[in-house]
Amino acid sequence: MKKVEAIIRKSKFSAVKKALHEVGVNFFTYWDVTGQGNEKEGHVYRGVSYSTSDIQRRFLSIVVNDEFEEITIKTIIEAASTHEVGDGKIFVSEIKEAYRIRTGEKGKDTLN
What we know:
Layout (H helix, E strand, L loop, with lengths): L1 E8 L3 H10 L6 E7 L5 E5 L2 E5 L2 E10 L4 H12 L7 E7 L18
Antiparallel strand pairs: 1-5, 1-6, 2-5, 3-4
Helix pairs in contact: 1-2
């Protein structure tokens, strides 16, 4: 099992969510985050332009069986990319075990 974590633009979240559902990734957790990166987001208020180093993003946490790892990553990249600085990052880590709380069962079948 793999844990795929992605930090993406908030504006691309709907497209990523739809694309993940289309390839069979139907369960994931997400939340709004603020971070700092190479992109400097500019704002205009009453005709005055200013920038801030705090960038609003959405963080997705997805645990998938090994056979879904590549398609999950490919789907996120295709749906989230604008080909501009600030599109985000994807991190992949190994999951040692998963348990279903309701039944107590463990293993990769708990993700279905």
